[in-house]
Amino acid sequence: MLILANGTFNAGTFCGQESVQAVFGLLGIVVTAIKVAIPIILIIFGMLDMGKAVTSGKDDEIKKQLMAFIRRAIAAVLVFFVPSIVGLILQTVNSAVTAEDICGYDQCVQKVTGVAGKCSAK
To answer: What are the pLDDT digits (tens) for 70-85?
Structure first.
């Protein structure tokens, strides 16, 4: 697999390869699974811990578990938005890519994020 041709990177050639598309497709599935599963798991565990604290009847334990639940909820929100932040970074990189490479680059981004790029209509 030649990534560099004549000393320059060609996103169209690189992202057009079936093996690269397969890897990026798998990466997209993993990102989506993480984006959905981890926040749900964090909130469920937080609710379970909070329920245990409430049934114990100790005020200090309830306050402690409430703070832990808030931290887990914040972590869940951050995990949910990490793919969006990565997408923003990819869009920034996309603005720096030369015009002839944009369509090839969009193939890579679309496989990972599931968002259609500028060249998907062509």
So the answer is: 888 888 888 888 777 8
Distance CA 99, CA 95 (A): 9
DSSP, collapsed to helix, strand or coil, labels residue 4 as: strand
Does the predicted model carry a pTM greater than 0.70?
no
What six digits make up the tokens of 4? Answer: 């560099």
Per-residue model confidence as pLDDT tens digits over 37-57: 888 898 888 889 888 888 888
- State the virtual CA torsion across 89, 93, 95, 100 in degrees, nearest 10: -140
Cβ distance 62 to 54 under 8 Å?
Answer: yes
* Closest CA relative to residue 82, chosen from 112, 106, 116: 112
Copy the structure tokens of residue 86: 């990565």
